[in-house]
Amino acid sequence: MKAYAMLKIGEAGWIEKDRPKCGPNDAICKPLAIAICTSDVHTVWEGAIGDRHNMILGHEGCAEVVEVGSEVKDFKPGDRVLVPAITPDWNSLEAQAGYSMHSNGMLAGWKFSNFKDGVFSEFFHVNDADGNLAKLPDSINTVDACMLSDMVPTGFHAVELADVQFGDTVLQIGIGPVGLMSVAGAALRGASRIICVGTRKICQDAARKYGATDFISYKDGSIEDQVMKMTNGKGVDRVCIAGGNVKTFEAAVKALKPGGKIGNVNYLGSGDYITIPRVEWGVGMGHKDIRGGLMPGGRLRMEKLASLVTAGRLDLAPLSTHVFEGWEHVPEALQLMKDKPADLIKPVVKFSD
User: Fold this and answer.
1) Mean pLDDT across the stretch 143-158?
2) 119, 131, 160, 310: least buried by Cβ within 10 Å?
């Protein structure tokens, strides 16, 4: 089969690979549409998870089932399905402990394009199909369905980690596609004020639609100073991080009230340590919680998030700004995500409506 892969750090290209084999609990799927993630950029050009050779890229997409194993009960060939970026092993001890995304090892629920071939291929393998696939509702198009793989659940997880409550003032750092879904999630959870860090107009316009109330730019001074000025020196109740680097936590801690919480879902692709300011962290006793987590995966998560779309509570159309048709556009779409032109939020390549 044809596939688009990481050849080595700094290089990606087309390869031929054998079609994956289906285990008794698994499924083989063919993509209906795929989306490019900044994580793919980190993986290829930063070597963020180490060197990989001929590893098929991609962890965002929706698909049609072409084969199922003998033990699969709820799916059959021909079913159109949502495919989460995180596909845990649901019988693992970690899953039983409530951390399925770390099943059989830290971050090991993230299989696609990490230690297992991803979805940028004519066929791909899904482990534990009954636990990880979800039916694609007829009312959700394939482009929007790609956003349910990763952007929506990751952005929403930042809000969960930060424990956003009714009436909270939230600082949102980063308003790319994940950050936009964090804005949407904070608004759905009842945040009264959402202050966003981000300068690209197309992202600001989308953030307003999702519930953002204010915008600041790191170009205008430190994030924390601007936040303190906007909040009359009080700071914010919650911080959601979906962008930045290992130094971003310094601004987040400084802008946060005592008793506040930080939820990070940003993929830190480089650097050895994060920076936490000692004094503003209450010299270790400020009750300023920092939580970082990989999004939950699995079928139930997909079904619940899809229901927000089908019920009209979440509009995903603003995210997909560049939509292509045909396999030949995969390299172009990946390069777009690397370059991030001013008019880009998310590129999608579709093969079916």
Assistant:
1) 98
2) 310
